[in-house]
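Writing this down once: the sequence line spells out the residues, with the fold written below as integer tokens. I am pasting one below:
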Amino acid sequence: DTGADKPPEHFVLFEPCADKAQRTAAHRGVRESFPFLDSDTFEGKVRVFLRSQKFAKSSPAAPHEADDAPATESGASKPGCKRARGSGTDKRSRSRKDPSDTPTFDARNAPWPADRGQYLCCVLYKENRDSVGAVDAISRLLRLPSHIFGMAGTKDRRACTTQLITAHKVPAEKMARINGAFRDIKVGNFRYVANPVRLGDLKGNRFSLVLRHLTVRDEAALPKALESLGRVGFINYFGMQRFGTGVIHTNQVGAALLRGQWKEAARLILDSLSIESAQIAEAKRRFFEEDADPDELLQLLPPFALAERAILEGLKKCGRQNYCNAFSEIPRHLRLLYLHAYQSYFWNMMATERVRLSPDQVLEGDLVLLPDDPAAPAAAATAATPAPAGSGAEPEVPAEVPEGESCD
């Protein structure tokens, strides 16, 4: 029994290198530049693989080949030190993982500190990604289930945005690995809190907008229009961010879900795919009309089609016709967005009717936000159209966090 572990399924093997110092430098470079990768030495070659995969021990005839890699949290020995059976660095101690590498903390091995809040709260910064996609990328990289993350709402994709998120029992050291793995996603301002951030836990948004290629018919009217905008405001309609820009809108999916029309909701989601080839169209036809295998369509969908792929994976797991349970494979915050889109659709209709009744005067039953200064005249509130409750705005960003800027 040599005690060898199962080798990684996928890896990159570099050219043989006889210089041990160069191999050690290569290992260190991999781990410092790519925190989601690991490496070892196999038959005189540097082998690089995903950190989540186990690596094979060297053959008994060449036990020194694995000693090039610098010490890691898995208990590797210092460079130049030989491993020996019974010396405290046997197979059992080497295979013990850092608790922060496990998907959730196991109380049997590393109990979560009693004096620490159960949720890690941090600021998520992203560029040209929507919030759901960014959280999904984080969960896949850290090998964590997406449902342990909480956020108050979604931020625009075409923007540089910041927002607060929470993660259940995730150490700050583990979350910080994100900063070395993505060019367009960063996290920071870590602190532990007792409660998660939930959808709707917010006070408002803060924007810096950049208008490019603007054409104005009457430049003389522009100052007056801006003054009116600042004094009267505008109707805070839900728009493309909530309903999407495709032929199929998210509120249509939400309506189907509320009616319990699971297969119809799945069809709408699959039809809303923004990029579709003739091959995908034919695979979708066979999937719905001929009950084709979900794998046929799944193999054609792009990685960013999160909801579409989740439904097909759910049908593989739960049964070909079990659309109801298949929807549970879609991340919860994404499922809720379909329902909230249906609510937003009705809010838009009610807002239009409210403004039709009186565009600039407060009516009985309105909710009015009074000025912060108690000495200011209450009549100032009559000049503004009330904003909707629960309109999808985000929590206030801490003062030390850069304010999100639109890249549009």
About this structure: Residues 332-357 form the longest helix (26 residues). The first strand starts at residue 12 and ends at 13.
